């Protein structure tokens, strides 16, 4: 059966929604933001497809074309749109009033229009520019989108035809095809495509991008932006892209030459300023090559009168900063700014009290490399042929004092941080106890009877069974990881507290308590005991073998109850964070890249890393991130229960200065 619908024109003001329109139950479809593109297209090109309408109650109800109808009403309301009023007539097709297939018609209108193929869309945009002579700005206006979005589509439509054909034939994926747009030259695209397909392997977007990198440097790349002015001044070829940031400096050799020259200038400036013997440059700091280099370090010197005066000023300022940082009302921005100031002051104080010896300056030098989008200066390096080798140490150099050179990144925990870490470990242990009620019940009962019946000292001081809840003291309780708190709260929520009724006498409460099932009693005792755990670090197997073994049983991995976060990393020095990333977590490249970043940026990176390990990590790196914690917090870690905090330096004896 064939049904024909008579054409007619209807004033926009006479159009109403049709109850049989299949989109009528999805009002969000007609929201202004969802029809913006359609509104823009109609404003420029007019209504390209007639509306399907049916006469209802003297009005024309839109059976198919509800979004176009909504866009027309938006144009009427938009005073900036010219030529659209309630009396403006638009093309329609009239469905007879006795038609009994209205819902089917509406559905067919919506589902029989196949979505446009992505490549067709890209090529259509390209033809509008190449054949019709339209500019990206006019195309954007037509479709109610941004110029950047139009240029993005245009770039894909201008990829070499052979590569687009391969994507149509599904020889390569759409993402792989898009990767070729990283270089605007179709000639280069074709050459790379042929080279990669000769290898008879599955072509991936990643391999395409890597291959294109060897054919030039994008101007938006940090190196491209750094050398561009000099590159263009020397006549270097630039492959222009519709999106400026994707334009390419095609002469990679010239780019590297200019970069090395700039690095060389920076290295020489640092050499002259610091008094080293030589200067060199390398694009990337090659750790394998540099493994054979030695290193010299500045040693302590006696500051002169002016330097001592400045040191005293720094000491006073650090003490003031400590007081300011104890303000719990500080927001994160102000807190981090204070830490940055502490870092700068400590570095200035070290420079005033340390210097390289004349002997070390005479044989060491400076290397400048490109890292993290900027020039990084590596100082105090000693070439292999100049390295004074110590007995039993390869390529190492003694400090000017004759003692082993200090490791600037060595992690030493100041007293305040150590105490807070003990508190957090105790909380994690309490959570583990609450989650293992049977084992904790046994421990509690064992301690109670052993302390009374056994001779000698208490079997363990790790828990305090005297019906007193332990007070948790922490400098930044509101910033710590809340995993253990949530676990303990969850354990509390399932406790049977029906017996605990203050309106009843203790004897009645006790009777109700005795009537509880054994498992419920165990949960109650475990929760109460968990609340008594003492601030602690890992147990000494010799001094407290009981708790050492018990902790390994119920808390083999503290990370199940505690996760390092920004609150912890903020209290580490920048050098510590880089050391943890590079040595403990196997993220050496990331550590190098972040070395030139601010401490705030490194803390944010570490916080995100531990909150949700990045997808780019190797299995080994992921395992390291999942397991890492300060050594003395591990269940069977370094023996630190009675360890003294890090020895204080003779410099400002400010807790902030040490922990920052």
From TrEMBL:
Residues 8-111 form the ParB-like N-terminal domain. The keyword Coiled coil applies. One of its GO terms (cellular component) is chromosome. Residues 304-362 form a coiled coil. One of its GO terms (biological process) is chromosome segregation. The keyword Metal-binding does not apply. Keywords: Coiled coil. CDD domains: ParB_N_like. Residues 388-409 are annotated as: Disordered. This is Putative chromosome-partitioning protein ParB. It comes from Thalassovita mediterranea.
